[in-house]
Design a protein that fits this description.
Layout lengths: L7 E2 L2 H10 L3 E6 L7 H11 L7 H15 L3 E10 L3 H17 L2 E8 L11 E5 L3 E7 L5 E7 L2 H17 L1 E2 H5 L10
Parallel strand pairs: 2-3, 3-4
Antiparallel strand pairs: 1-7, 2-5, 4-8, 5-6, 6-7
Amino acid sequence: MNDVATGEPINWDEVERLFTDFRFSAFRLETLQRYESEDEREPFRRFLGGEIERSSILKEWQAEIREGIGNGRTYSRVHVVTEPLSDYVRFECAWAYRSNVTAGENIRILAVEEGEWPDELPRLDYWLFDSRRLLVMNYTAEGALLTTELVDDPDSVAAACAWRDRAVHLSIPYHEYEARFDTYMRPR
């Protein structure tokens, strides 16, 4: 189920080109409970100290979403999260997801109990563009991005489309999930 053909490694400029070149839809499946990014270190530290800070990176992404939506594109993601939520997932929800949804990204949450995983879904992070271009995101165990691979294998792309559909079916809209928590994503 998790098998995806090996793709062609691509650099970050090529990844960014995928975001400018797609015509209709960009979908992201997120499966990690922590992502490590230099750009998020300080906002994450502040979040743990009780602050929610917006950054220029988020503003740029949200502007890209708004512009893309204005051009007829859709942006969506499903994040498979384990409960209880990790500090990082709480941060991601409060720091990014709230404002990304406001910008027009369709974010959904598939919550599972720790130690469980949804049937028929891989533990694989990827972007799927126009249901035909698959970008596999390879991470370290700590959540740092290692490599990005563009996979053109038709069977792998078809599997990613099926996983997307399954994840969307099993998940709920972010705003419904968020209603269960306070501002800092602590259970109410």
